[in-house]
Write a structure and sequence with these properties.
PMDh-L-like_dom; lyase activity; 4-stranded parallel beta sheet; 3 domains; Aconitase, domain 3; alpha/beta; 422 residues; binds FE3-S4 cluster; iron; Aconitase, Domain 2; globular
């Protein structure tokens, strides 16, 4: 392998046992992919933070207790629970204790304690072209596609080793030549531009995108730019990387490596072309949503964590009204966003409306079994994709306005959708 002097020193143990072990694992990864060299990364997003079992906790403790330090700025993903309000969330003490241990070991290694699955909305994202390592799927997809930074889909806890070594094998999406689209998705004429006013359409298209592209790089043409925001791109990234293994997408005319179709494809012709129609949106909605029911137990928002703007929007939609007593309305945000909404007075206003605001946690870890919640609503394609396999419920999908109205009336309130075919 072509190694720099510093990389050789790390492998020789001159920079500590943990750097040596990290490099040895990364050399194995490089050999597996027939990669000859490494590339330095500018940062890492650590996804080994939602408690998944004792092995995960002990692995991080082993690294931290043996002197491992992150050699690049390493932000942390959401945890299983709100660290201060775990009991109110009905998490058990074992999860809380494990989460505390995860937190302590990652901070000991020098993590930037963001505890958020949308770190890019709180000011700590890499820049265009920078090399990075992440294992959180929505972050990978957003960084690659929306920012133009470069990361492969690393598996947690491998990203911890990347952060300790400050390097990754130079392959896959780290290289410009591997970042061009191979397939194209277009929007059919029956999907009118004004349909994009309803943010839910981005979640449905994101779902279809993941289904078609799987783990390949595809571009999508025909998305009207005036309806695209960071929040919409967040939901698109999270959904496409859940229904498929999407690590990078190009939105022609919108994302930075796809200013033109030719740029997205590196001047080549798409190998495959798919067109999305109304009936596809209808099917995506059916895949992401159970049928509307009158009674509503809970509205759960924040997968990925809500941005400041989304909190402002929810507050506006509430317009001083209260969530009905029998329906829980939870939002999850980062501590940074919590500070911002406290400063602007929105925090108090949301509380007065009966919204429960939790920080740092993962809303997918909601204990519907303990709350006996059967009918749940969310605006998130990722949450709705995983809720059945992880929590045994199939939530109802709705946009932010519908989620708020449903919370106020305690029953599912959904507007007419042009893609709804009865
Ligand atoms: Fe975040 Fe958990 Fe969703 S980590 S992206 S709230 S699954």
């Amino acid at each position: 392998m072509k190694l720099t002097d510093y990389e050789k020193e790390m492998l020789d143990g001159k920079h500590g046992e943990m750097k040596k072990k990290s490099m040895l694992a990364l050399v194995d990864l490089a050999k597996f992919y027939n990669v000859e060299e490494f590339v330095e990364i500018v940062g890492c997003h650590d996804d080994s933070t939602v408690y998944a079992g004792e092995a995960q906790v002990q692995f991080a403790e082993y690294l931290a207790d043996n002197g491992a330090k992150f050699s690049v700025p390493t932000t942390t993903n959401a945890m299983a629970n709100d660290i201060n309000r775990w009991a109110e969330q009905k998490h058990d003490i074992g999860t809380m204790y494990a989460t505390n241990r995860i937190q302590a070991s990652h901070i000991k290694m020098g993590a930037v304690p963001t505890w958020s699955c949308a770190p890019y909305q709180i000011g700590v994202a890499p820049s265009f072209g920078q090399q990075f390592a992440s294992a959180e799927s929505n972050v990978i997809c957003y960084y690659n596609s929306v920012i133009g930074a470069r990361t492969n889909r690393y598996a947690g806890p491998l990203e911890l080793l990347c952060a300790i070594a400050g390097r990754v094998p130079y392959y896959g999406l780290h290289k410009k030549e591997n970042r061009f689209a191979e397939g194209l998705i277009t929007i059919g004429n029956d999907i009118k531009e004004e349909y994009f006013e309803d943010r839910e359409i981005f979640t449905l298209i994101g779902y279809l995108f993941g289904e078609i592209a799987a783990d390949r790089i595809f571009a999508i043409d025909g998305i009207p730019g005036k309806y695209v925001s960071n929040d919409v791109l967040k939901q698109f990234s999270a959904t496409a990387s859940s229904s498929g293994g999407v690590a990078l997408f190009h939105m022609i005319g919108i994302t930075p490596e796809a200013k033109t179709k030719s740029e997205a494809f590196g001047g080549r012709v798409p190998k495959e072309v798919f067109e999305i129609h109304i009936e596809d949106l209808n099917r995506a909605e059916k895949m992401l949503s159970s049928e509307s029911k009158d009674n509503l137990d809970a509205v759960l928002l924040g997968c990925p964590h809500l941005s400041y703007n989304e909190c402002v929007q929810i507050n506006k939609l509430l317009a001083g009204r209260r969530i009905v007593e029998k329906t829980q309305f939870w939002i999850t945000i980062s501590k940074v966003t919590e500070d911002l909404i406290k400063e602007s007075g929105i925090y108090e206003s949301l509380l007065r409306s009966g919204i429960e605001i939790y920080t740092d946690g993962c809303i997918l870890e909601y204990r519907n079994d303990k709350w006996n919640s059967k009918v749940i609503m969310s605006d998130s394609g990722k949450f709705n994709s995983y809720a059945f396999s992880m929590r045994g419920v199939q939530p109802i999908i709705g946009n932010l306005r519908e989620c708020v109205e449903s919370g106020i009336y305690g029953k599912v309130v959904k507007g007419e959708k042009p893609w709804k075919i009865h």
